[in-house]
């Protein structure tokens, strides 16, 4: 079969967030099948380019991604431009070239879904999302797949974005004018901003809460104040090498950590019981193995129908 080409719209019709959660869970249960060097960053004004190669099982691939912060009119919108290429390991054949923006959004949300399923309390009812950009809809779908959420809390510097997101779901939602009010009663807090200045304080959080820290995915980015990392009970990261360089935990020396840290692979593969921890945090930077596995799943689904 010839190399296939898929655009973002096609990918969105082929793959759902709940479906991708299953793909990503398999990845983290089988990290021994993967090879993944660290992301390569090329910095530019207001953004960067990233090369993300990896092998998972019988698929090799790379995502080439440009991330730029659009500061026009103070909206600070994140623009992402990406392509994913995958090859079959045994034959070397180039299987597919796919637009990467939809894959990135869906698989990023799927990882949040996996982490939330393994880490958040079963009775979580209120979910807060800070930042209502292109990924937020998918992130909400992922949290909904993991827990029976009854109310959404939304915050964005542009309040119209909150209303746009909230109206897409058949659930009670409320948009807030400040971050503190948004997170104060939330059982699950997901942060999705390009911030380089921390804005979540530990004293604002419930005694029992799960945090998905998604926005900090490059050196210098951060969303959580130091007091959050000092006081949560358990920290999970998607990949140590990446997170220690570009995630929330880049600001904490391992010898200074005040609680147990582990990677998501251990939590998923070992089915680690986190029910004894009241405050948990997941540090996500986005991994090339997620892109490669998701693209291969899409390829197999398309070619087998």
Question: Could you explain how this protein is built, in words?
Answer:
The chain is α/β, with parallel strands linked by helices and 305 residues long. The protein is 32% helix and 28% strand. It has helices at residues 8-14, 17-29, 101-119, 136-146, 159-166, 179-183, 226-231, 240-246, 264-269, 288-303, and strands at residues 4-6, 34-35, 40-44, 47-56, 59-70, 77-88, 94-99, 126-130, 151-155, 172-175, 188-191, 209-213, 234-237, 260-263, 279-283. It has an 8-stranded parallel β-sheet. Strands 1, 2, 3, 4, 5, 6 and 7 form a 7-stranded mixed β-sheet that branches. The mean pLDDT is 95.
Which stretches are poorly predicted, pLDDT < 50 over at least 5 residues? none
The string of secondary-structure elements, in order, is EHHEEEEEEHEHEHEHEEHEHEHEH
Which shape, going by the Cα principal axes? globular
Structural class call reads alpha/beta
Helix count? 10
* Helix amount: 25-40%
Q: Biggest β-sheet: count, sense, barrel?
A: 8 strands, parallel
How much of the residues is beta strand, in percent?
25-35%
Distance between the termini: 13 Å
Chain-averaged pLDDT: 95
For the CA atoms, what is the radius of gyration?
Answer: 18 Å
Strand order of the largest sheet: 10-9-8-11-12-15-13-14
Q: In total, how many beta strands?
A: 15
